[in-house]
Design a protein that fits this description.
The protein has a domain of 183 residues: P-loop containing nucleotide triphosphate hydrolases (Rossmann fold, 3-Layer(aba) Sandwich), CATH 3.40.50. The protein has a six-stranded mixed sheet with strand order 5-6-7-3-8-9, with helices on both faces. Strands 2-1-4 form a three-stranded antiparallel sheet, with helices on one face. Helices cover 40% and strands 21% of the residues. The protein is built from ten helices and nine strands. By secondary structure, it is α/β, with parallel strands linked by helices. Bound molecules: adenosine-5'-triphosphate (ATP). It comes from Nocardiopsis sinuspersici.
Length: 267
């Protein structure tokens, strides 16, 4: 057990009422060192969200072990050391943007943790001018920026993000990716990011974890040796395209594993 990484060993999980021959997770092994940005990608239903929720301490598992920087997921969760950004931002509708973003400061004071200056966070996601607006007055992209700023406000040791940009148009998505990287570089948080976009996974990550369905487990971990910052020249360069092709090929072979007859898969 190490305090400088997330360690997942032999993790299995079958949901109540689910078919025991088709666990959501079936022997997941994974190491994520502290301060890395790691993306999970894989076919629909391969268990990405389930893995995220188990690491977050929000979901039980059946067998195997999960330790997050030397602690259990549940104790990390209780200590407010883990943040979760879901696909749909859950903002408090009766609080304006600034008060939504400053909410963690109050929670953190109770948990004895420091927190980040809300005005700095709003600047970093380019929302200073919207500080007094209410959630119903914001676009989808703005709401997600508020949710991300708020999540970083907790100064979490670990931030788990479940397809946070999937509902956004491509232009907004790319702008938010850059803002997210800016926050991550400043806060040195460990980020685990679920996405269906190969380009997004490669743009953001130090490593891309490709998962297979049936069995739901790690198929391959691909390092992303692109320089940072990931500016225009980097994300349009030949190395970027080569890495995207590499991830696509891995996804294809992960998909072929999932498409194999059950008796072969489970042998
Ligand atoms: N609450 C639940 N109850 C029962 N089964 C569930 C539940 N949540 C997920 N599952 C099942 O577990 C498996 C993995 O689901 P999960 O949502 O983790 O996959 P995913 O890779 O995140 O999928 P997607 O990419 O479509 O979001 C699927 O077969 C799904 O139907």
């Amino acid at each position: 057990m190490s305090d400088d990484r997330i360690e997942v060993r032999g993790l299995t999980k079958t949901y109540e009422g689910g078919d025991p021959r088709r666990p959501a997770l079936d022997g997941v092994d994974l190491d994520i060192p502290r301060r890395r940005f790691v993306s999970l990608i894989g076919p629909s239903g391969c268990g990405k969200s389930t893995l995220l929720r188990v690491i977050a301490g929000l979901e039980d598992h059946d067998t195997g072990t999960v330790t997050v920087f030397g602690s259990t997921p549940e104790s990390m969760c209780e200590a407010k050391a883990v943040g979760l950004v879901p696909q749909t931002p859950a903002l408090l509708p009766w609080l304006n943007v600034r008060r939504n973003v400053s909410l963690p400061a109050r929670v953190n004071r109770r948990a004895g943790r420091g927190s980040e200056d809300p005005d700095l966070l709003l600047r970093m996601v380019d929302l200073e001018d919207a500080a007094r607006r209410y959630p119903h007055e914001l676009s989808g992209g703005m709401k997600q920026r508020v949710a991300i700023a708020r999540a970083f406000g907790l100064r979490p040791d670990l931030l788990l993000m479940d397809e946070p940009f999937s509902a956004l148009d491509e232009f907004t998505r790319e702008a938010l990716q850059l803002q997210l990287l800016g926050l991550w570089e400043r806060m040195s948080t460990t980020v685990v990011f679920v996405t269906h976009s190969v380009r997004e996974a490669v743009t953001l990550s130090d490593e891309v974890v490709v998962m297979s369905a049936r069995p739901g487990r790690v198929h391959e971990v691909l390092p992303v040796d692109l320089p940072r910052p990931r500016d225009g020249a980097v994300v349009t360069g030949p190395l970027m395209h080569a890495l995207e092709d590499r991830v696509r090929a891995s996804l294809q072979s992960a998909w072929e594993v999932g498409a194999a007859p059950d008796d072969l898969v489970r042998r």
